[in-house]
Design a protein that fits this description.
The chain is mainly beta. 8% of the residues lie in helices and 49% in strands. The chain has one domain: Beta Barrel (Acetoacetate decarboxylase-like), CATH 2.40.400. Strands 1, 2, 3, 4, 5, 6, 7, 8, 9, 10, 11, 12 and 13 form a 13-stranded mixed beta sheet that branches. The chain is globular. The mean pLDDT is 97.
Length: 266
């Protein structure tokens, strides 16, 4: 019997793109909170989600430098289990519950791509970079301090899709306040069978379940954000109209579950 949590299934299961959960993450985030065209954010929402009347047009662009592990010290294989990510999250409501919806997300690692599709995040491959912070003092150290600047960028297929810069102003006592809403995603897999291609094999609205979410070293400040218009992408349709703030923090969490909110699959 072939083994493995994801494809490729193999005799011993070692070839699978990612090991089975629970999955554990730790990383650094640089991001910008902003307001865009409310019609543009509403247009990204799937069936089951509605614009938030209190904050329609509100969004967050995040750049993350991640380290991952499961149960077998996978973090000791950094080439396979470190990765970078860039995602945009927009405000929405599920029923009367405020949530965030992820219409676009990019990663630079195939294991992260497989985990994302399993969870319902529409991950694509991209090239993501951000300024890092080091404990040692020096001009290139990027200290977590008032006035420090952190930049980030996203490119895909040779095109720049997003660029951001954050200037830190003051720390946030409760860093979890920056992650107040749960995230909703869409597990969608089409059917290739002739005559069924207008239907779906899987079509599930899902809410992320995170355990032991921890935020440390949270700072906020001013932010800059730009989404250049490019062919074959639609991120630029969410171009900022007004910047709320910039932020930087470290976070960790685990996940071993997913809450299915609605199943529209055939």
């Amino acid at each position: 019997m072939l083994k493995g949590f994801t494809v490729p299934k193999s005799p011993f299961g070692d070839a699978a793109l990612t090991p089975p959960p629970p999955w554990h993450y730790a990383g650094d985030a640089v991001g910008v909170e902003f307001w865009t065209d409310p019609g543009a954010t509403a247009a990204t929402l799937p069936v089951g989600l509605s614009p938030d009347p209190a904050s329609n047009g509100h969004a967050v662009m995040m750049f993350l430098d991640w380290q991952f592990t499961a149960q077998d010290d996978e973090y000791l294989e950094p080439a396979r289990y470190q990765y970078r990510e860039a995602s945009v999250l927009v405000d929405a409501v599920y029923g009367d519950v405020p949530v965030m919806w992820c219409p676009y997300v990019y990663v630079d690692n195939d294991a992260a791509l497989a985990r994302g599709w399993t969870q319902g995040f529409p991950k694509k491959t991209g090239s993501i970079f951000q300024t890092r912070s080091f404990a040692v003092a020096g001009p290139a150290a990027g200290p977590i301090a008032r006035g420090s600047r952190f930049a980030a960028s996203l490119s895909a297929h040779g095109q720049r899709l997003a660029e951001a810069c954050v200037t830190l102003r003051h720390p946030v006592e409760n860093g979890l306040s920056l992650l107040a809403r749960p995230t909703v995603s869409l597990r969608y897999f089409p059917s290739l069978v002739a005559g069924c291609q207008d239907e779906s094999a899987v079509d599930e609205l899902a809410m992320s379940v995170t355990d032991n979410l921890t935020v440390a070293g949270a700072w906020i400040g001013t932010g800059e954000l730009n989404f250049p218009e490019t062919n074959g992408e639609e991120l630029h349709s969410l171009a900022p109209r007004r910047i709320e703030l910039g932020f930087r923090y470290s976070l960790s969490y685990s996940t071993s579950d997913l809450k299915i909110l609605a199943d529209s699959g055939s």
